[in-house]
From TrEMBL:
Its EC number is 2.1.1.107. One of its GO terms (biological process) is methylation. Gene3D superfamilies: Cobalt-precorrin-4 Transmethylase, Domain 1, Methyltransferase, Cobalt-precorrin-4 Transmethylase, Domain 2. PROSITE patterns: SUMT_2. GO terms for molecular function: uroporphyrin-III C-methyltransferase activity. The keyword Manganese does not apply. The lineage of its organism: Bacteria, Pseudomonadati, Pseudomonadota, Alphaproteobacteria, Rhodospirillales. It comes from Roseospirillum parvum. This is uroporphyrinogen-III C-methyltransferase. It is an enzyme of class 2 (transferase). Pathway: Porphyrin-containing compound metabolism; siroheme biosynthesis; precorrin-2 from uroporphyrinogen III: step 1/1. Coiled coil: none annotated. Belongs to the precorrin methyltransferase family. Keywords: Methyltransferase, Porphyrin biosynthesis, S-adenosyl-L-methionine, Transferase.
């Protein structure tokens, strides 16, 4: 049998003086894309977020690793500092892999970094990753759409620049317009979110699922309802990083519970 890689088209080259904004996916190294693995193997320096599996970083070999991840209680560089670092490394002639959790362009600062690189005339490429908003529900047994009942899915950030809900977020409109809601970075503001959704007419009995550390061996899953969501999360002691799914398809989680972290070789 021929080598499977030989059947695929050749990969682009990570050139000296350029930056690739690479999505590392939700956590499980098996969910890395082929292009992401190639970027790690080709780079001179990897500038990475906090929530990256150490196994993934080993794929960068002897490349320099610069941890700029944001963690609670620890000072972290500003976005301007991170963008300046990428530009500095590229102008030094290095091949730069900017490794970001999930997808670089989904609720992250990838667009800010891409704009800074473009303004500095630095060649860059975006390497999409599997977002936790897609993989988390899948690993919890929650399809985001099912045939006819779900015609829209809303991806919602629970955190704006100031730490609270983003200004201008119209939860009432989303409550009426999207049967399935996927919440990112929302654990601290769940009481406010659930209150607004209930006030907008969502059924307190509709299913909700919380997935913490999605796709990791430490994944935890909580099945509840919208009306009990904030209370049950507090009682279970769940915290970030987590994804929350609210809507009819969350009710399938018990029947589609397939992921067994203890039995998974990854």
């Amino acid at each position: 049998m021929p080598d499977p890689h030989s059947l695929l088209p050749p990969l682009p080259q990570l050139d000296a003086g350029s930056v690739w904004l690479v999505g590392a996916g939700p956590g499980d190294p098996g969910l890395l894309t082929r292009l992401a693995v190639h970027a790690l193997a080709s780079c001179d320096v990897v500038v990475h977020d906090a929530l990256i599996d150490p196994v993934v970083l080993t794929l960068a070999g002897d490349a320099e690793r610069i941890d700029i991840g944001k963690r609670g209680g620890r000072a972290s560089p500003s976005q301007e500092t991170v963008s300046a670092l990428l530009i500095e490394q590229a102008r030094a002639g290095r091949r730069v892999c900017r490794l970001k959790g999930g997808d670089p362009f989904v609720f992250g600062r990838g667009p800010d970094e891409a704009l800074a690189l473009a303004e500095a005339n630095i060649t860059f490429r975006v390497v999409p990753g599997i977002s936790a908003g897609l993989a988390g529900p899948a690993y919890a047994g929650v399809p985001l759409t099912v045939g006819g009942p779900v015609g829209a899915v809303a991806l919602i950030s629970g955190q704006g620049p100031g730490g609270g809900l983003p200004q201008g977020l119209d939860l009432a409109a989303l409550a009426k317009g999207a049967p399935t809601l996927v919440l990112f970075m929302a654990m601290r503001v769940l009481p406010e979110i659930t209150a607004r959704l209930l006030a907008a007419g969502r059924d307190p009995a509709e299913p909700a699922v919380v997935v913490r550390h999605a796709t990791w061996a430490s994944q935890r899953r909580l099945l509840t309802t919208l009306g009990r969501l904030a209370e049950d999360v507090a009682a279970a002691g769940l915290s970030s990083p987590a994804v929350v799914v609210i809507g009819p398809t969350a009710g399938l989680a018990e029947r589609l519970d397939w992921f067994r972290p203890d039995a998974d070789p990854t």
